[in-house]
Amino acid sequence: MTVAGRILALAILLPASGAALELDWSESPAIPGRDSLEGAQLCVVDGRLVLAGGLDARTGATLADAWILDGPEGAWRRTTDLPVATAFAAAASAGGRCALVGGISGPGDQPTGSALEIRLAGDDLAYEALPELSIPTARGAAAWLEGVLYYAGGASGAQAPTGGTALWALDLETGQPQWESRAPLGGPVRHSGSLAAVDGALVIIGGAPATGGVAIPPLADAHRYTEAGGWSPLATAPEALVPGSAVPFGFTHVSAMTASGGLLAYHSVTDTWVATGDSPGPLGLAGAVEWGGRVVLAGADADGRPRLLAMEVRPDPSGFHSIDYVTLTAYFLVLVTMGLYFARVGTSSEDFFVAGRRMPWWATGLSIFGTQLSSISFMAIPAKVYATDWVYFLLQMTIIMVAFPVVFCYLPHFRRTPMTSAYEYLERRFNLQVRMYASVSFVLYQLGRMAIVLFLPAIALSTVTGISVYACILIMGVLSTLYTVIGGIRAVIWTDVVQVFVLYGGALLSLAILVSRIDGGFGAILTAGAEYDKFHMFNWTWDATTTAVWVVVVGNFFLNLVPYTSDQAVVQRYFTTRDEKAAARSIWTNAVLLLPSTLTLFLLGTGLWAFYRANPGLLDPTQPTDSIFPLFIAQQLPAGVAGLLIAAIFAASMSTLDSSLNSVSAALVTDFYARFRPQSSDSKRLWLARALTALLGAVATATSIALATFDIGSLWDTFQGMMGLLGGGLAGLFALGVFFPSANGRGAMTGAVASVAILYWVQQHTDLHFFMYGAVGILSCVGIALLASPAYARARA
Predict the structure, then answer these.
(1) Which secondary structure element, helix H or strand E, spans residue 266, and what is its range?
(2) What pTM does this model have?
């Protein structure tokens, strides 16, 4: 038996690992003067826990007092009272705000249709009235989803329910917001249910049935709602649930308390329930909310005393072993050694940037494949399929389509004369200004991309290895910068070759282990996937705002034209081969690899779904969906092999980073320094290339650490979005040069700048699916340039 066969046999024979969730319970301090929490509204406002209103234990009158807990270790403090004494209102928290809807208020405990929004003003609360419901109701449920406030169920009094199947929506972004009726709730008429926004949809869970008021027996059913699809049934909980106890829990779970005092977790991706533990004692529940990673339960103990309990999931200990860390370290040493080895071969700037134009076509093709298959893609593709279906399969196939125009149309222009920077072609075809614009656009985009390429994988890798996010970023940033500075493009390409073999081999091994872990094997994956429509691939609609077949195919054809025709990190690979024929072979190599690798990753995603559907207790609610593949690797792969595959994911991120470092350095040295100082010596250019690579690596690493430290993700997303506006116009410039001889430099610049403005307007003012942004950018650049070029030509005549 071969070594690979022994590893596979060992992996299949090993039992599935993973421990049950461990829960940490704590109790919040008592609220001064409060002897009851019945009917109180519990929510979160700008990171503070808020408790307001409720019933007086002695008189039964509704209350208006409000309290704030600034942090888990703090003490409750009194704040601005509610405008009206209220109890049993539905509370919904999202971002920095909370909404209270309905409830009972005033003499006679009459239900109300009032609604208000709670925000933090300084250290106290401020209230703003919202439009009223058309039906006065109490004991309903509310949740925010994508900025819209939803309210479901409810009762007209303490006993008689009305509107118990109703769902209302309030969009505060409209000019004159009003409550609008939506599709009636799934399941029986109910009140005191739980409404939660999970995984891009509303989920209603449990509650009290129409008969018997708030009396037992409570419900255990669950239903999912989307605006496009309406209501659909979900798996029923194995036990009856305490009304109002279900709250979002982690990233894709909902936590709920059973009537017997146990805790269950519902997982929205696999549609499964699993027991997570028990509450520390009997608790008559008054309210529940998620607060800073904790589930807070408000209620009363067996003696009627008020209690506020907080439950937190203790993260699963890392599945890594000592041998995994040894494997990880050895892999990194191999990469650095390769950099040192190739440093002896490269002694000129041409060696540093294009490997003396002597790289084998197959190695270059693997490098292109490895660069485009970043660690983000390697983790994100299986995670996306695990969470959804196969609609994105066609996205990958468009890369094969793009290979044809690249080989037959673009490549002859790129290889007509020796070049180091792709943007040299634009100066020869148009003028210096177009070259400068394109090169600056590329450099700015890559500066942003490098930080993201380090930051996003570091989060997932940290959760499964136990290595801190900062250490993950430093390891990837420092090592990739080191071997790129030393070995140049040769080190980049050959390390790419190594990581492609390890990554793809690891994906095949993981798929084999997945199949062996599931009763019924591969057939069971196909059967379960078909039953839940996990292999759905085609959306037959003309709607340009969704993943229609034509949107996926047309949109991604243009999106993939951007890197393969205008991205220096990819085009630079075309210059490293001996001639045009070898460069074409490298492009076909990349295209040929895409079909089997895509099939493997998509089957892996569906397999992960089937595996965790059969083993929901192995899921970790503290980890996002994007971490599902690294989680499986750490849990299920044998010691040593897991370390090798995690090392390969590190290396995939480093592969994308090293390509960016070398290509940005090439653009800066070639398009700026060498262009404006043609008499400079080659030794000085090589020194500058290495110095810039080191500086860029340091900047990317520091920026990525800042992303992890200062929580500036939303600001960074905005920057990335702005930089993304440049890609379509950049590809449009190359399309103009290759296909339209009548286009001139001034017209091309006009088209490129106009495409940025047009694409920005499309992003801000339309619902066009983002897959179409590349088409908008390229076509608008080409169209406007063709219209402007004759005008500029006549003006100069």
Answers:
(1) strand 262-267
(2) 0.85
